Amino acid sequence: MNERIAQMPDGREITIYDIAKHLNISAATVSRGLQDNPVINKNTRKKIFEAASQLGYQSNNFASSLRSRQTHTIGVLVPRLNSYFMSAALAGMESVASNHGYNLIIAQSLEDAEKEKVNAATMFNKRVDGLLISLSYDTVNLHHLAPFYRRKIPVVFFDRVDLNQDNTCVVIDNFGAAYNITKHLIEQGFKRIMHLGGNLLRNVYRERLEGCRQALSDHGLPFFEQLHFTSTLSEDAGVEAAKFILGLKKTERPDAVFSSNDTAAVHCMLTLKAAGVKIPNDIAFAGFNNDPISKVIEPNLTTVNYSGEIMGSIAMTNLVNHLKGISDLSSTNSITLRAEIITRASSVGALVLK
Amino acid sequence: MNERIAQMPDGREITIYDIAKHLNISAATVSRGLQDNPVINKNTRKKIFEAASQLGYQSNNFASSLRSRQTHTIGVLVPRLNSYFMSAALAGMESVASNHGYNLIIAQSLEDAEKEKVNAATMFNKRVDGLLISLSYDTVNLHHLAPFYRRKIPVVFFDRVDLNQDNTCVVIDNFGAAYNITKHLIEQGFKRIMHLGGNLLRNVYRERLEGCRQALSDHGLPFFEQLHFTSTLSEDAGVEAAKFILGLKKTERPDAVFSSNDTAAVHCMLTLKAAGVKIPNDIAFAGFNNDPISKVIEPNLTTVNYSGEIMGSIAMTNLVNHLKGISDLSSTNSITLRAEIITRASSVGALVLK
DNA sequence: TTGTACGCGTTATCAG
DNA sequence: CTGATAACGCGTACAA
Lengths: 354, 354
Known about the structure:
2 copies of one chain form a homodimer.
Chain A (H helix, E strand, L loop, with lengths): L15 H8 L3 H8 L7 H14 L5 H8 L4 E6 L5 H16 L3 E6 L4 H13 L4 E4 L12 H5 L4 E4 L9 E5 L1 H14 L5 E5 L5 H16 L9 E3 L4 H12 L9 E4 L2 H13 L9 E3 L16 E3 L2 H16 L10 E4 L2 E3 L7 H4 L1
Parallel strand pairs in A: 1-2, 1-3, 3-4, 4-5, 5-11, 6-7, 6-8, 8-9
Antiparallel strand pairs in A: 10-12
Chain B binds a DNA duplex (16 and 16 nucleotides) through α2 and α4.
């Protein structure tokens, strides 16, 4: 391994021409040799690699991309980078991409549709080979992705997807998971169930709400519209939700809360606990995401577990397979990953007590 | 805003030549107009932008990079993507970069020096304009960064840095923070202080250990080598540390633990609590990072707060300023950011009780 | 198996 | 202020 980086006297970088000159062969041969093109004589190839390493050659990706129209770069556009789920998803994506020789360009929309639009344009201009996207909080249409479709650049949605079009999506069964976790609460004897939900523009929050409603209705229980608290599901939103609950007359308070994410659930719990509310005896809780905090809060939070890492790697694997011609995106419209209810102390015991 | 993406009849993309032909001017003028070059007539520029938008022109970054030798892309090389601190740091970096017209290529070393090396090479080949790096767990030298120095591509280290060379680093005062938090424990009356530490190859863990030692020695207390537990500071490591403590005779157990991160501290606490150990009465705790879980664990964890977001944005701002010629990296060798002790219930009360 | 010659889309240089 | 032309470094028909 040669640590020295050679350089031409005038400061230019080493090119295949320099290698060619060095070996008295043509640049075309060098180019082919470097690509392991089988038509090249084994011995020649060997000499090319030796010379390349000796001269400190580093291939120039732009020139290559310009010519081959492939960047080996994949754009990843997410709402926020700093959540446990998203960083796990990114980690999964990065591993798969890296294993297949692809790099990631990552940008965050900060939950802003306008920034998502700008980022999409940037990625398009950078000529990413494919795009992985999870929609921002308030994205209303997919016009900003039109350039990708137009040029047949594959786009894979994950988690926060758009199911109205025939897009390739990697998701979980949000409706089913919400249904089951609500059913679990009902089976524990809870009857006034509150829902902390997100923006209904996003499939994940819409379906979780619907799953909750359906479970209630299937069990002959009402959904209290006044107990449907919509927010961004942030820490602060959790605190606000708690204040809302504390502001209700005791008889109007929910006996259980199903939150569309763990962050809001946990910070709601903390605030309630500080106000003397007993969990789960006074109010039970269930969340969504199996965030690390759900195992730390006391009582531990019942939640829905699904792996960001797996979702990220599945999404990326699909994209890469498509790019390599191994599979076709159009053949797999939607991939639904496993999500499981994890029952913990925050949601049990009501039946026993009542 | 024109949503249609035009395309030449033969499938080629629109180029500046097409715009030039359309307006009966030269491609050079178009290029200059698009770059807002002041020498271009205002009216001409306007016509160029109109034609570009009308034809659905999208600039080709490769061609541009090939020619201008600038990619407007910054490489970010981190140990892992999925930690709270790191995702906050990335979010900070992304915001600043994006505001200055730069994109991020992000890769993770997964704490493996070899992968860090490969990633560095990839980024170099992608011709990133600059590199931001936080070292992997077991990186022992900086040979893999030599190509960057050779070509004068600016490198900025953050958090896990290498202070032995004259690198530009963005850090906190790990020694001081560890010193102060240990002092805090001592002032609460604790005398047998255990340290959960990381790999001493990394400045952050080495300095935290040293700060701890110094505080003990300054207060006439011994540092018990057998109570120096080195690990990766993962969740599992926290559990292992707890098992280690539980395996000690009661008289040999520490009365306080200072952990180099919150994750290990919290999972150590959880395991101890499950075994009936009272915190802080039996064993007090202090962590590092102010991870969200530190506010959820009971009792809340005393810790050191420093902002990943700020560290990321400062590091990126410095790099970008350098790239834009606003400042020189060599003039700022090391930037030390504020870190503060946050005292919470996990570490108080011992004096009162003893 | 190798070489020749050209094009990818942009920007820099030098004239005008 | 604008135009013509030559790079930038690589990949690939086509020819040998």
